[in-house]
Amino acid sequence: MDRRPPGHWVGIRTADCVPVLLADVDGRRVAAVHSGWRGTEARVVARAVEVLGRSGSPAERCRAAIGPCIGRCC
Hints:
By secondary structure, this protein is of the alpha+beta class. 22% of the residues lie in helices and 24% in strands. The chain has helices at residues 37-41, 44-54; strands spanning 18-24, 30-35, 62-66. It starts with 17 loop residues before the first strand and ends in an 8-residue tail after the last strand.
């Protein structure tokens, strides 16, 4: 996990995959996850939550923002 001083931003770029931003409620630890179908199948978001937990942000203190993505119909 990259440790940067406060005041930095984190983000990801996606096309049709699911962008997920995770943050501890205190805002000190964050993660940006790109979850395509392979990543979703591999539980990449759950793994990111586990990494945040190991760094001091247990899952119950984390919040997620799920961005737009392509639908099954497309």
